[in-house]
Each structure stands twice: as structure tokens, then as C-alpha cells.
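Hi support team,

I'm opening this ticket because the web form for multi-chain structure prediction keeps timing out on my end. I have pasted the exact lines I submitted so you can reproduce it. The total is 1329 residues across two entries, so I didn't expect it to be a heavy job. Is there a limit I'm missing, or should I split the entries? Thanks in advance, R.K.
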Amino acid sequence: MHRVRALVVRILSALTRIVTSGVSRHSTLSSRIVIPASQFIMADKEATVIVVDLSPSMAQSHMAAAKGQSDIDMCMKYVYDKIGSKILSERKSDVVGIVGVGTEDTLNRMSEDDAYKHISILSEIHQFLYRDYQLLPTKLVPSLKSQGDLISGIVVAIDAIAQHCRHLKFIKNIVVLSNCTALMDFTGIEGIIDKLVEMNVNLSIFTIGADEETSTALQRGNHSLLSDFIDRVAGRDVNAIIAPFAEVLRDLEIPHVRKVRSTNSYNGTLTIGDPNQFDDCLSIPVERFSCVKASAKINSVAYMKPKESEPASSTRRTTTTLGRKIKYDIENGKQKEVREVEKGDLKKGYRYGASVVPLSVEEEESLRFRTNACLDIIGFVPSDTVKTWQLLTETNFVIAKRTDKHATLCLLSLIHAMSENELYGIARFVSKSDRPPVLILLMPFIADEFEALVETQLPFAEDVRSYKFPSLEIIKTIKGKVLKEHHYLPTEEMKNNMKDYINAMDISNLTPEGLQAGQDDPDGREFAIVGEIFDPVLANTRQAIMYRALHPGEDLPPPSDSLLRNTYPPEALVKQSSDIADRLVASVNVKKIAKYKTNKRRYAAQGEEELKQESILNVDELIDGSINKIDSEQSVSKRRKLETSEESENGEFDIEAEIDKWQRTAAGPESDAALPRIFEQACAGIDTLLEDENLDPAEAVKKISILRSSAIKLDEPAWYNNYFVKLQDALVMGGSANKSRSKVWENLSKKGLGEIPLGDRDLDE
Amino acid sequence: MDNDPIMNPLPDVDDAIEEFDFRNQKDAILYCIEVSPSMLTTIDPADNETQPTCAARIALESAYMMLQQRIISQPSDAFGILLFGTKEQTDPAYENCLMLMDLAVPEASEIKYIKEILEDDEKFDSVFTPSDIPASIVNTLFCANQQFNSISGTYMFQRLFLVTNNDNPSDTRPDYRKSARTRMHDLIGLGVRIEPFFLYTEMQPFDTSKFWEDVIFSSYKNDEYVDIQPILITAKQGLQMKAHVKARQTPRHAIFSVPLEIVPGKLSIGVKGYVLFKRQDIQRSHYVYEPEGERAIIARSRAQYTYTPGETDTTAEFALRGMKAEPKLEEIDKNAVNRGFKFGGEVLPFSPDEIQSLRNIGEAGIRIIGFKPVQLFDPAYNMRQSYFIYPSEEDYVGSIRTFAALHKSLVDENKFAVAWVKATSRSSPFLAALIPCGELIERENGRDEQKQSPGIFVIRQPFADDIRDFPVQPNGDVKAPNELIEKAREIVNGIKMPKGYDCSRYPNPALQWHYRILQAYALEDELPEFPDDFTLPKYKSIHNRVGKKALELTRNADRTLKDL
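Hello R.K., no limit was hit. The queue was backed up. Here is the completed structure from your submission:
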């Protein structure tokens, strides 16, 4: 576990910040070093200046991986993503400025100096809004002939940051994007380095095609000088990095993780014993912070365009989010008229079945279960007795009160004692007074530099739903006979194949290629590790919003494949285990049942949904039945009608009516014998129909459909299935096939009126 | 504040998988209790603590107990109590059937009536008077049918709890069995599930093979689990009966049904997902309108969109102002409202379909990514309650045996599966650990009780986005000396519960208190004084076992601190 956590932290930090210290020039984005968490927590405000090379060559393509796209287009991917994320975060204190190098004009504080010609502050440091974002493509355009000095651009950026941040605490970043085709002036670089160190600016330089095979000597020279520059900055304990843009592109595919600062959610003590009764209790002041917590989702909002009657102005926004107000309606009187009531006229109350229990404020108070904030240990349980599937909530860290060394000592002792004895704690927890108490599980958590208890809630008696499911290893018949062989039970062969497969597809230690690694393989690592997979919905939503911002009115692109990276079994491993997999697949012999489109498979489908469907279908019929029972006159008349129809030789045989009749007389002794006869009669009726020269296919299909559902209702699928075989002969094979008859057959297959799947009804017979 | 619309904007359509909250599902339960001389035979208590009772009384008590809580926790449920074999009858069409409570959403007065019957022996005896001829089960089922028919279509789950101690009602009537089968068919056709509670005593055993197996199983599908094992009934076992009623009160239903892919592209089976653990919270209160001299009615709330002319954005200041003084709000018709996402002060338009499509990533299904040793599973990453999956042959023939092989192999090899889960076509996908759990059966009071069903739990794992940094610890360099750990070890071992945590021993005290007080208000009873709280630690025992050691640990820590 410790291993996992440490890794997660490393990865997360690497992804969120571009940092390095003392890393050589060839350092890559993936080998960054963690900066202490405290730095994130304390420094809230962040200022970033992006220095973009806009010299004419940026309109060309220098990077092989860009496949012909211009350098500036590549840069824009980064700029859109970086700034778009900041806008989405809605943080006022996360500000951005943009400096263009090689612009037509010159716009900076040092513009009198020739070294700073053709360098423009395209956007002062400020919180970016939608409008600024939309202007990016028009602002960041390579000039037609101007060149500027990139190093001077960095100086302008430093100056902008210094002006904006003054002495205030900020995280300061400068990001430089260039193809290094223009001359750079490294004179006075010492002073620049001093300034960067003094201000503690994180510097990242991303070069576009500057150290590739096709790069010019000038590009290579520039790249090498920039690398030296970075090394010297990094050598003075400032985060500095240079990397080819191809790596940035790869990183852009990895979604942003928005860091959230956790706040203490419990201020109290962890207690063993009751300090009010006894003076020999262990009371440790503790605090509680989130360990895992579902990240905030991006929710849509209701909005409208401002009314036309309102004066338009250039500073106004074009959309307005709407508020919501809760209104209350009551249904009153016999006419059930609905009228609105004021909230002030309402009381709180609860439903009690069909009754309503209104409560006064005092009464409502008395419903509250009075508690005091506490974290009281009930006892300790062996960790292997804990059923991890019972845990209900997100987890929290419980640590000793941070200013209290005594508490730290006591809690750490407890954590180690629990860990060494493989015990988990059970405790009663009330986070704030008068909140309902919950029972929690406390697990020792020991990482390299961090020790805590991890807490999550356990279920109460009421929270368990005791659904029962049959055994997977034996089949018990109704008569109590135990079967060890059955098509529901796996054979030894199936079990062995499955075991082989599970072991072949073990992903706990894989080589970078995705094959199982040896135990001592230094490159071996766990695949699909917790914390490496990103929330695809969140990432997709962010991408969609940024896309819409840049391409209003266009359809959204399909979700990017990279969202689901690492959520598939590693390809190489799948390929390697394909023989074992094939053996398994052959032995278990699973068959997919074709879905009927038009007709619900009422028989094979055994879910409650289906049962419900059926109940609706039968309701009318059954209600009819009960009315008949109560209203004798009606009953007689219906019966008479049925009898007539049965007696009349040419009359249609109505199997549904027959069954209805049968059901009402079912208590009689003759019923069981009568049923097959009724069924046969119905079949004969259909046969006659099919022989008719002027056969109406729709009519025939309807009859057959009724026959089929009757067989299902009667729980005698075989009756229909037997008949169906004959029917098939008559319609297709028997030579008597004609157009109408083929049509009947076609419709039968289309509507899924084939044989009734037997399910597994015959098991106990 | 909780209801403030501005501070708590409406979240997007929740994941469809969550929408299926079991509280929203409406149940109908008809509780049928046989009344016969043997059901009314006094059962003498084995000890002095319990009162003499009878099977019929225990049955009604069980029904009442269930009713008491469900009327509050699921106030939309329909509930009925039908006594059969009584001298009295409600409707001449159904002989010897007495509707103690019609199958409908119950009124407080009806609960009160049941309570009175249980508290007043005379009343009990007059209601529970058996008829001279034995009860007709056929007739009873027909009566039940009529009850369910009257509410048909409104309820998601309809169940009939059948309490009897007669193992062969067909004794004297040869065609009886067939008729009973038919009635059972009818009920099942209506969508009613039968939950039998067959009672026996040492004097009067219950043989399910005589009559009931035939009648009940003729209507059931094979992979359904119907518990027809008889329940021993003694004065003390009244509790056991109640436990059985409680255990079966929530109908089993799947919340999703998806393919489980075991071999990529080659082997998928059908599984259904269930929720076996879920926090049962206190029902939220409603706003109630109480016209003078009339019954109180619940006010229906609806959200009204509002627009403030001149405002450009609902910023925090606007929200604040909205609470202090009513700004000039214009009400906006729902149809005039667009939806979109905020971006840099504007709202970018998104159609409802587009908003939904953002979470539609991939097809619904569970895809196994690979397998890992169980030690690599870490409960510290728990996100929410688990799902339970069990195979279904509905879409793939052979699912059960393949699932069984997977289950067995995982248990034997001590492994779990890592999977990508999208439970329904509308829900968001997530990473999960698939942890197998074996079947556990215990022999209890002459019955084989399944304590744990076999299956696989789907435990959601966090995304990178969900993992928080460690909190900063200024005293991070402090290490616990062995001597202190040794003391702590004595403490943790001193109050060890070797059997582990058994949730059935801990009812939710706040929830139970809520039920009791609300019932007292509803039935105009006296308020109970003190709540029961089984979650309080056994302080005295802790004091006796580890008090001294706790004191020592505290003192030793003091000393260590001085030495630092």
C-alpha cells in the first residue's frame, strides 16, 4: 500500500507541475521531482506568463511529429489547453499574461532599448475570460518579417511578473514556446539567472523541432545554449526545464488534475474510554482530512440571453445565468385545484404512510438525536475479518492535531501497534455535535513520510439488504437432491482453464511492453494502478467546453481515445495468452441469445421487469375475470357467448377466450385433461387458416402469436414448440409454400415468434 | 439554507444508476396470516422473561414491526394485512377472509388499530376467532389477487407474505392442489412474488413436500431463490420470525444488467448488479400546509427559474443580495431556458443531448482489464458502497457456469480482477476492483441459513482526480519509540473483538430514534424518554481491561516528550 501511495503522489505531482531541480539538460517531463506539498498548500496565487515566438518561421513546420502542421499551430494546442484549464478553474488568483517575440510592433516597458524591439506584451497579466480566450487566435499570429530576441522576451516576462506580483506570495511560472530559428542574445544571462532565482520563477522552455535531424545549425546552437541556461538555473535550486514539444503534446493527452486543498473536518479527540466516568482514558487530539473524495463534476447551468429591451453595451456579457426559486403548490378541495402558497404559511412535516404529521419547531427539534462530537473507539478487529465490500463511504485521514507533539506520539504508537498486530479499529464517530453518529473503520496507513489512520463508514443493521442468491457450486433441486453436475456448474476442465487464464492475465508486474515481468525486473510495474487512470467524463467535458469556446456553433468532436487509455487489457499480454484464452472460450461454450426486436422474450426473460410487463398485459383479462365473478349476469352472458362460438362449426376458435374460461373453471377436476384438447383445437384452427387460398398473412401471424403467448401463460412451451416444428414443415419445406405462406414465415421470424426458449425449466423433472 | 436554490444549484441529471434509489421504488406487501386453532395454541415460554404467546400473534407482531418503520422510511408503499380462516369475513365473496387492513398506503389510524389489537387481549381474541371449517387457501389467494388487482400498475414490486403452519391444506379436497396452483399462477402473472413463512413447532412439524413445494415451485422460474424452509416458532423464537420478516422486507432487484467481458472480444457473459449495502437515511421532511380544521397536506415544491433584469451574472454578490432582499426577479418559463457550461464569465450553449453525451463514453458493460493478487487491493481507496454481481442466463447461455468458474478461480488463486465498469448506457464509467466472496451457510435453529451469498463485489476505485494529497504534518519527523508502541499494543489487544464487526448488532440509533418519535407524534402516543444507543462503547469494560495501560501510554508519552 505504501508503495502505491508513494507512486501516486509522484505521478500526480509530476503531472500537475512542471518542476525539476538539478536535473540534467536531457531531462524529460516524466522524470520530475516532487516538491514538498507544503509549497502547494501555502501558495494559492499563481501567475503564469507564456512567451510565444511569433517570428515568421513559426508559420512553417519544423517538427516531425507535427506532420506538416505549423509550429504556431502546435503552440496553440498548448496555449488553448493551458489557459482553458485556468478559465475553467474559475480561480481569480490564477492569472496569465502573454508575451509575443517577433511581433510587428513593439509594446513593452523597455521598448526604447533596441534589444527589446519587436517584443510585445499581447496580454497583460490578468484573469482570463471567455472573450480573451476567443481573441487568442487573432493575437497569436506569426509576423511577416519581424524577428525578436527570445531571451529579451524572457526578460519582459520576468518584468511583467515582478510588476504584477510585487512582494506578494505567488507561484510564478514562465513558459517559453519557440522553434529557435531566430538569433538569441545571451549577453547578461547571469543577471537574468540571478533574477529568476531571486524571484523563484519556475521556468519551462519547450522547443519545437529545434533538436531534430532536420534542424538547422542555428536551431541546434540555440537549443544547446538554452539547455546550458536551464542547467544553470536548475543548478541554483529553481525549477527549470527544457523539453521538446513532442513531449508536451504527449502530456497534453493526460488530463489535468485539479488539486483541491482539503480542510480539517473534525476538531476533537480520539478516545479510548469515557473521560466523564473514568480518569484513565486515552484522549488524543486529532484532525481529519480527505484521503479520497470524488472530484467536483462540472455541472451545466440554466441561462438566457439578455432581453432585447435592455441596452446593449460592449462590456456586458451576452449570457445570464438564471437563479432558481422554490415555489410551493397545494392541491385543495374536491376539485383538486392547485394553488400556490407562501413558504411562510407552511410548516415542516413528515409523511407517515398516507397521513401527514406536521411538526412545530420544538417538535422537530425533539426528533433530533442529541450527540456530542466524538471519535470513540469501540474495539479492534483482526483486519482479515473486515469485509471490504461493506465499506460505505469515501475515506479520510485521521492524524494527530498538528501542533501537538504528545498527540503525535500517542497516535503514531497506536498506528504502529495496529499495523503490527494486523488490527483495524471500530469507532463511533460524530463529526460535529448533534450530527447522527456513525460507525467507522480505522485502518493504519504507513507511507514513507506519512503515517495516519484511514477512516471510512461501516453499515448499520438497517443498511444491509439480505438478498439471497443460489450457490455457485452445487445445485439443489426442489426435492432436496444435491447435483454436482449440471450445465449451470463448471466442469473441472472449465475451472482449470479459468485458473490458467487468470494467471496468464495477471497484471501486477508488467514490463513496459505489457508482458509479465520477472520478479526482479527493475522495469516491472503494476498495470492499471489506482491513481493512474483519469476521470474520462471530467476530461471529456473540459475538452468539449474548450472546443465550443473556440468553435462556436460547430458539432462536438467524438471523445478522444486517450480518455480510455489503460482501461483495456494490455494488448501484448492478451496476444500472448490467446492460446489459453481460446481453450477457456471453447470449454465454457457461452452462446449469446439473439435479441428479438419486436416481441419481449417473455419466457426466457426472467427478470422482475418482465414479470411486471406481463402483469400489465394480463390485468384487463384478470379484472374482467373478477368482474365476472362478482357480477353474475355479465358472467353468464360472456359464457354464453363463448359457448356459442365453440359450438358454431365455422366460427373462429378463440384460444384466449378458451383459456379464460378454463381459468375460471380450473378448480374443476376435468381442467387438466381439457387443456391439451383446447390447444390442439387452436392449432387445427390455424392449420385450416393456412390452407385457405386467400390467406391473410397478418391474421395468421396474429393467431400464432396468441397461441405462443398462451403456451407461455400455461407454462407449456413444449406444446407450442412441437406445433412450431410442424408449422415450419408446412410453411417452408412442405412444397406447399406459396407467397402468402412465405410471408407468414418471414413475419414469424421477424417478430421473434420462433420456438419458446426453454430456459432451464426441465431441471427438476 | 439547505433548500436555498441559489446556493445549491440543481446538479446535472444524476447517473442513471443512482437514480434507481430503492427509496423511490414503491412496494406493495400483502401480509396473509392464517387463523386456526393451532396458530392460536399458546406457546409457553421456556424462561420467565418472555410472555406466553401464539404463532398468529408473533406473525402480527412481525407485520407490525415491519410496518412501523416502513411507513416512515418508505411512506409511499402499500401495505395490507389479510387474516384467513377467521369466523368473520369482510366480503361474502371471500369466505373466512378478514381484511385487517386493505392493501393501500396506510393511514395512521390503521396503524393505531393494529397496535390496539396487539395491546388489547380481548380485541385480539375477538379478531382472531377461527372459523369452524378450515381456511381455504384457494379462496385466500383469490382474495389476495383481488387486492393486488385493485392497486395494479402503480407498484414496482408486489409481494405476498404468506404465514401458515398448515403443511397440507389439501387433505380433504382432492382437486385442491390444482386449484391452488392456478391461483398461484394468477398471482405470479400479476407480478406478485410469494414469500412463504412456514411455521413449525417441535410438536407440529412442517413438511413442505406434502403440498407447498408443488404449489409454489410450479410457478417459479428455476434460478429464483425462494426460501421455503420452515421457521421454528417458540415464544423466544418470535424474534427469529421477526428477523426473517426483516430480512425479506426489501425485494431483490437488479439495478443494472450488463455483459461481463472476461476474454477481450471472445468471451462475455451476462451479469446483473445489485446493491446490498446502502446507508438508510432519515427521510427528508416536507413542507406542509395545515388548513384550519382540516387534514394537513403536503405542499409540492417546484423550481421556478428567475431572471434579474440588469444583472449580467449570478456572481456571489448577486447570490448574497438574493438572500437579503428580494431583488426584482422575473419568472422565466421553463421552455425559455437554455442550458450550457460556464466558461470565463459566459455560458457556452450545450443542448441537453450534448450534455448527456459527455458522459456516454463507451458501451455499457464490465470489462476485465486483468487480475492481481488480493494483497494489492487497498480498502483505503474506498469511494462508495459496493455493487454485487451475479450471473444471469438471460442474454448469454452458459453465463452461470462461466461465472462460477471465474468465482472459484479467483477465490482459489487469492486474486481479484481490475475492471472498467459502465453500469448502464447513461451512467459514467469507473475503475473497479472485482472481489469474490464465497458462500457462507450456518446451521441455525434447525435451518440452513445462508449468511452470505456467493458472488462478486464491484468496488469502485478512485480516479487520479479523486485522490487528495497528504495533509502537511509539521511534526512529521516525530517517530514513535518502541516502548510506546509496546504499550499501545497492549491496549489494542486488550480490547480486541476477535470475531470482527457484525453490523446486525448495531442498529442506527439516530434513525431508530426518529422512527420512534415520529410514530409517537403520528399516533398521538407518549414520547419515549431515552433513546437506545448500541453504538456507545462499553466504557466500563474498556476501563477494566485497558484503563491502566492507557494511563501508562499517556505518561510514557509525556516522558518521551521531555527527552526529545
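A quick check on our side: The first helix of chain A runs from residue 2 to 16. Let us know if the file doesn't open in your viewer.
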